[in-house]
Design brief:
The complex is a heterodimer of chains A (329) and B (74). Chain A has one domain. Chain A is 65% helix and 6% strand. In chain A, the strands form three sheets. Chain A has a two-stranded antiparallel sheet with strand order 1-2. In chain A, strands 3-4 form a two-stranded antiparallel sheet. Helices cover 84% and strands 0% of the residues of chain B. Classes of the chains: A mainly alpha (329), B mainly alpha (74).
């Protein structure tokens, strides 16, 4: 146990400090090459460097490779390869705007390492009631899980600091759940994701100095998804990201098709003091942000704080669920 | 409005636990006689699981409309 704690400290430090140190260098590099985008929620023409996914990739992969040296298990290898593949999908979308179906379809292929390395268990575990063996259905679940988590997390990347803060809270909740279930190796792998998200949040929080881009947001989601599968905590992982699930659910049930977010009407507009307010357009999609500002306009920072509070709530529910896994009725 | 979103998350959590219970207690143990191909049993289970997901989404949609629609319109 003592060895595992030391490994956890080492890999968490690698994940955190590699991003903490490398991101300012990346910001300067991207600014020098004019790789910036307009921050739509700021007064004036504020340009922010993008994609920060490069530094997130370095942090996650460096820490997970180190972890693999200590625990050479194929589950960690699946996490590393899936993270790299999902980053590749995201960076293509960052460089060249692709259609709405591009990410779901290509992310489905990112699940290949999980299947090829056989790092899944076809039992699906539920709280209070035990598990159910669904061999053929579980294969479909693996293929669908990565696109779902990748796109769900990407869809919440709407305001300064939301996606990185969201991932920090959700990943810590998932890591705690994995430790409760005594799945220590995957729990430490999840800690890498949590500390990588935390380090990136330092630069992404309001007012952002860098945006993660699709490469960062999709990789956050895909890495989270693969950890959920190899750690056999699919249900707990889904509960920890319920605010993002609600966002996707509200969006899909109002738009009624899979569509790239650039193609739809903006569900928010600005007040004179540049707070965000809900749009009057009935055809604009319903999103989590639109719900939060339905009653009164809020500043970007206030909305971010509300979303992070919701994530803490769902994270607590996820941890309660982990405790309930040990109880059978 | 924020309290309603917390409530919605809580309802989703309860639905996940209940749905899991139905899958484990009723769908999982389904088995036909040994003469029937296992693939047919799996297909039946898959159909029932998809049916449960449709009911889950339908229930959530109803709750969402009930809770949020008036707020969005206002």
């Amino acid at each position: 146990m003592e060895e595992k704690i030391i490994v956890a400290i080492i890999v968490s430090a690698i994940a955190f400090f590699s991003i903490y140190v490398f991101t300012p260098i990346l910001i300067k590099f991207l600014e020098k090459r004019n790789l910036t985008v307009k921050d739509a929620n700021k007064i004036g023409n504020v340009m922010i460097p993008r994609p920060g996914g490069i530094s997130i990739l370095i942090g996650i992969v460096a820490s997970e490779i180190t972890l693999y040296f200590f625990f050479p298990i194929s589950e960690i290898l699946a996490v590393i390869i899936t993270s790299i593949l999902s980053f590749s999908v995201g960076i293509i979308d960052d460089r060249k705007t692709m259609g709405g179906w591009f990410k779901p379809v290509t992310l489905a292929f990112c699940a290949a390492p999980i299947l090829l390395l056989g790092t899944y268990d076809s039992n699906l575990y539920f709280p209070l009631f035990g598990s159910v063996k669904i061999p053929s259905l579980y294969l479909a679940l693996v293929v669908f899980m990565i696109p779902i988590t990748g796109n769900t997390i990407n869809s919440i990347d709407v305001l300064n600091g939301v996606v990185s803060g969201f991932m920090t809270i959700a990943s810590f909740a998932l890591a705690i759940s994995l430790f409760i279930l005594q799945n220590y190796e995957i729990g430490v792998a999840c800690l890498c994701l949590a500390f990588a998200s935390l380090a990136f949040y330092k630069y992404h929080k309001f007012p952002s100095r860098i945006f993660p881009g699709d490469s960062g947001a999709v990789m956050f989601g895909a890495t989270y998804g693969v950890i959920a599968i190899v750690g056999q905590v699919e249900v707990i992982a889904a509960i920890a990201i319920l605010p993002a699930v609600i966002n996707s659910f509200l969006f899909l049930s109002s738009v009624k098709r899979i569509v790239e977010h650039r193609e739809i009407k903006n569900p928010t507009s600005h007040t004179d003091d540049f707070k965000l307010k809900s749009t009057d357009d009935n055809h604009a999609p319903i999103t989590l942000v639109r719900l939060l500002i339905a009653k009164k306009p809020l500043s970007e920072k206030q909305i971010c704080n509300e979303i992070l509070k919701l994530t803490v709530f769902s994270g607590v529910l996820a941890i309660i669920t982990a405790f309930m896994m040990g109880v059978k009725i | 409005m924020t309290m309603k979103i917390y409530g919605f998350i809580f309802v989703m959590w309860i639905l996940i636990i209940i749905g899991g219970g139905i899958v484990v207690k009723f769908v999982g143990p389904i088995s036909f006689s040994t003469e029937i191909e296992p693939i047919i049993t799996s297909s039946v289970k898959m159909f029932l699981a998809l049916f449960l997901i449709i009911i889950w989404v339908f229930t959530l949609t109803k709750i969402k409309n009930w809770v949020f629609k008036s707020q969005i319109k206002s």
